Hints:
Blueprint (H helix, E strand, L loop, with lengths): L2 E10 L2 E11 L4 E5 L6 H8 L7 E6 L2 E2 L4 H7 E4 L11 H11 L6 H10 L15 H13 L5 E5 L7 H15 L3 E6 L2 H7 L2 E6 L2 E7 H8 L2 E9 L4 H5 L4 E8 L2 E7 L5 H10 L3 E8 L3 H9 L3
Parallel strand pairs: 3-8, 3-9, 6-7, 7-8
Antiparallel strand pairs: 1-2, 1-4, 4-5, 9-10, 11-13, 11-14, 12-13
The structure holds adenosine-5'-diphosphate (ADP) and magnesium ion.
The site of magnesium ion has 4 residues, from helix 1.
Amino acid sequence: MSIKVENISKLYGKQRALNDVSFEVKPGEIVGFLGPNGAGKSTMMKIITTYLPASEGKVSVCGIDVNEDALGVRNLIGYLPEHNPLYLDMYVRESISFVAQIHKIKPTKKLLDEIIEKVGLQVEQNKKIGELSKGYRQRVGLAQALIHDPKVLILDEPTTGLDPNQLTEIRNLIKTVGKEKTVMLSTHIMQEVEAICDRVMIINKGELVANKSAKELTSITTEKIIITVEFEGSIDKNKLSKMEGVTKITEVDENTFKIESDASIDLRNDLFNFAVKQGASVLTLQKEHQKLEDVFKQLTKQK
Ligand code: ADP
Ligand code: MG
């Protein structure tokens, strides 16, 4: 197992940031660690990367316990922290070379060229980090995280603060890099998980509330179908709400309604017949599938 987390709890004073969290990440997986702000994502990542001790529980990375051999674990991990501190006065190439030396790796021209090419910093390599956009600074962070060729990459909100173009580029980069490594990335953006990850773990208020493949998650939690229907001509709302199978009805505007039913019931035919009986007709009829985004909201809503 690349990452094994067993019954981890973390208290900051009296505040419980993580509560009995357990999960595993297999070699080669790209796993999304999803949760709203304050859910405990960064705390979990700091524990895995040995920068913070847990209050209870056990974590190992490629079989090495974080408490027994922190340096051993750090050698196996490439970590991009949430607010990655970079020396703005350093030159890009110089900063990567600097991090290589921290890892006791000789920063040969070949090694630096390779890593700079991998993260797409060829044009910027001789600039100062302070002169780079946020997207390019993240590339520098990734280069630093990758320089010692770690087996596992831990990326804490790697795309936060990027513009849409940068976002796509960094996602693609993570996907490419992820082909050869185990990746755990945190995000509060649902589409990110859909775009990059094989699996998603959702954390809310320090507890793991879901751990599924993206596909599984949607199918399991699809409890309802929502149909938006627009009638031409007025209909009796009361009768509509009494139609068999309807669990909830919301008026969008005068002749448009959102109609909810159990996931096993498709009301589209009945709605057509209803309109005919009412002497009206159906202008639009749209069936919504529950999206991963909705599942996320459902699982992390305030209790
Ligand atoms: P996330 O990364 O999901 O936004 P964090 O792991 O940063 O969440 O935080 C989880 C909870 O722990 C939050 O309520 C946060 O305020 C609290 N917390 C994080 N770091 C500290 C700290 N150093 N001291 C006290 N509380 C903290
Ligand atoms: Mg965080």
